[in-house]
């Protein structure tokens, strides 16, 4: 509630009080007398709109006209991945919708995930943007690229998987500890009896995968000690390697009670399970948990190969990250910040 009498004419003074700025600031913005910081202008615009100020439309036009132009860069993985393509679309939409800037998104995808290649791509993309967000493994070479861009005045955000360099501008993504423990909870609660459990990882260099695996093991050790967690199956995010690994697990471990896909390659895992069930219709599949609701994981839930999917709310992640990147280009918030988004849990019955 504004506390103003209904029908009462809203004054400039009321707008200034609601926005927490001086009357002269509102006057400068309304009459375009002098520039006003974009974040300040946005506060004035929001206050004017909230109060129903008669000239709120003019203030909105002034705000829009003086918003700084910003190019935000995003370096994502695997152009063929439905998850990263969907994330790219959400990021592009968030940049366009961000009210504090006139934004343009530059989104690139990487196939070669070697530290040298990723670092080179970061420096190349960073040369043409005002801020950069990157999905990358935690490697000294990546840290050097972050530091070089920092020296050039380009803030770099770790996306989905954190980086250890202190010069990163922040992190945006899920709480990997909670994801790992949640995956272990589902498997140990849904499995018909104790037995072996497998974990698929893309690479240990990604902090998110490392932390999720550690947390998975910690939960099992603490709450389900009768289950045995096998050594992780490395997929290098390859569906072919993941399929090969799942076939090998089913052959070697008839007491396999569950699996957790903590990385790429889910398509291969699902394909291997379907093939095994075709070969043996009486086969009882292990309990499966994976990340990110996509067309593939949705089909896995519906087909019975997966029992739970732990997903990231992509629109929320994109909007929060873009807002923070825009602020960083204005020099707001020099201290690195963590933007942790909640986990969405999907089961066959919640689709």
UniProtKB/TrEMBL annotation:
GO terms of molecular function: DNA-binding transcription factor activity; transcription cis-regulatory region binding
Pfam family of the protein (one): LacI
SMART domains for the chain: HTH_LACI
Database matches in InterPro entries: HTH_LacI (IPR000843), Lambda_DNA-bd_dom_sf (IPR010982), Peripla_BP_I (IPR028082), SBP_2_dom (IPR025997)
UniProt keyword DNA damage, yes or no: no
Keywords noted in UniProt: DNA-binding, Plasmid, Transcription, Transcription regulation
Alphabetized SUPFAM superfamilies for the sequence: lambda repressor-like DNA-binding domains, Periplasmic binding protein-like I
Keyword hit for Hydrolase: no
Residue intervals of the HTH lacI-type domain: 10-56
PROSITE patterns listed in its UniProt record: HTH_LACI_2
Protein's name in the database: LacI family DNA-binding transcriptional regulator
């Amino acid at each position: 509630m504004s506390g103003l009498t209904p029908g009462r004419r809203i004054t400039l003074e009321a707008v200034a009080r609601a926005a927490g700025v001086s009357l002269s600031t509102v006057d400068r913005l309304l009459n375009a007398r002098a520039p006003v910081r974009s974040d300040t202008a946005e506060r004035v615009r929001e206050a004017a709109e909230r109060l129903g100020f008669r000239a709120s439309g003019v203030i909105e036009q002034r705000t829009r006209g003086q918003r700084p132009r910003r190019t935000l860069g995003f370096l994502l993985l695997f152009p063929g991945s439905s998850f990263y393509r969907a994330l790219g679309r959400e990021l592009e939409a968030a940049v366009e919708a961000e009210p504090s800037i006139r934004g343009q998104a530059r989104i690139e995808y990487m196939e070669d995930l070697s530290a040298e290649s990723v670092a080179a791509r970061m420096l190349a993309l960073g040369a043409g943007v005002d801020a950069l967000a990157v999905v990358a493994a935690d490697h000294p070479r990546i840290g050097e690229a972050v530091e070089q861009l920092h020296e050039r005045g380009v803030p770099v955000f770790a996306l989905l998987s954190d980086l250890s360099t202190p010069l990163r501008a922040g992190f945006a993504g899920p709480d990997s500890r909670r994801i790992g423990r949640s995956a272990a909870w589902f498997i140990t609660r849904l499995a018909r009896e104790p037995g072996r459990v497998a974990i698929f990882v893309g690479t240990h260099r990604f902090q998110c995968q490392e932390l999720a695996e550690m947390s998975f093991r910690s939960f099992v050790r603490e709450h389900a000690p009768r289950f045995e967690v096998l050594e992780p199956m490395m997929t290098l995010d390859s569906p072919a390697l993941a399929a090969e690994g799942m076939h090998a697990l089913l052959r070697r471990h008839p007491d396999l009670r569950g699996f957790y896909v903590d990385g790429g390659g889910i398509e291969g895992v699902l394909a291997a399970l379907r093939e095994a069930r075709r070969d043996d219709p009486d086969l009882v599949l292990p309990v499966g948990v994976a990340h990110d609701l996509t067309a593939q994981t949705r089909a896995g839930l519906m087909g019975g190969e997966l029992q739970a999917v732990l997903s990231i709310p992509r629109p929320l992640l994109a909007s929060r990250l873009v807002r923070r990147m825009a602020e960083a280009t204005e020099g707001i918030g020099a201290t690195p910040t963590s933007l942790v988004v909640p986990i969405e849990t999907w089961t066959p019955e919640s689709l």
